[in-house]
Amino acid sequence: MAKTNPGRFFEDYSIGQVLHHAVPRTVTVGERALYHALYPARHALYSSDEFARSCGLPQSPIDDLAAFHVVFGKTVPDISLNAVANLGYAEGRWLQPVYPGDTLRSETEVIGLKQNSNGKTGVVWVRTRGLNQRDEVVIEYVRWVMVRKSNLDALAPETVVPDLKKALAPGDLVVPNGLDFSDYDFVQSGENHRWGDYKTGEMIDHVDGVTVEEAEHMLATRLWQNTAKVHFDLTFRPDGRLIYGGHVISMARALSFNGLANAQMIVGLNGGAHANPCFAGDTIKAWSEVLGKAETGVPGVGAIRLRLVATKGGEPFALHGPDGKYSPDVLLDLDYWALMPI
User: Fold this and answer.
1) What residues contact 65, with CB distance under 8 A and at least 6 apart?
2) N or C: which end of the chain has fewer CB within 10 A?
3) Is the Cα torsion angle 301, 303, 306, 308 positive or negative in sign?
4) How far is 329 from 314, CA to CA, in rounded Å?
5) Each residue of 189-236: pLDDT tens digit?
6) What distance in Å separates the CA atoms of residue 303 and residue 285, rounded to the nearest whole number?
């Protein structure tokens, strides 16, 4: 019998199937250092223990997206090892901070299946939960991925497309225990703009750009233990080695600091699409649109809903072409909730 794992193909999934992913991972302060080396991440809550304590937390957590990448990476060998592409996200929630010393593991339930008309691939919808050493759920999200078939003669499963929320309601968001922005230090955070300064419909050009290099992408993808073949094997895609979509998300989020320095914590992921592939040599720029705002009932803490768009050097605020499809310059369209001082 073969000892190696070829990964799952589309015909290997079934509705209700639960997958428990290897390998648990203990995160340390080294995770933060590497994350900040890979991205220009500067949000104060994730950079300073003292700033985090002034906001009511016991210490600085691991960056919200770093925790997401760890949880996501666990799932790759079972979900997307044979993926053509990761297609989108929904119903993502950060339920509590992840601190250095926490051990994370992941488990996933298959909630949707649809074979594509070409009979060679299909779309798999999954709901993943990241749990800590106390079996507390710290992150949960839905994603859908296009996966190859191994046996083209395998019968198509019954189509099940999950009914997902278009957006999380403010009441779905979880504010970390103890968080309090009443004495928020705007000097230390880097900007004076607070929740009340942003208006729904406002557009923000984050100005800066970063050219993606092969070396940093390979380091990041290995850091998250993401083993998807499209990110490593140059023979797997004729157009080149695909940059991990999470790398684009983190880069765009870090670039958004210029204009949204006080959007401190991501707590909800309403939806997201990797609109076009990203390859080494592409220059990532970012812009944001304010989609909504809500009060949380927690002292000094407001929630702001943002659309974060990453482009490969395109003009800001251009999302769709005349045909209604994403502009070819658009890499990422992400809709999320963040916490900000009122």
Assistant:
1) 35, 246, 249, 250, 253, 266
2) N
3) positive
4) 5
5) 999 999 999 999 999 999 999 999 988 888 999 999 988 888 888 888
6) 24
